[in-house]
Amino acid sequence: MNNNDKNLIGDRVKFARLKSKPKITQNDLLARLEIRGIELEKTAISKIESKTRPVTDKELVAIADALDVSILWLLGRE
Question: What are phi and psi of 35, to 5 degrees?
Answer without folding.
Answer: -60, -30
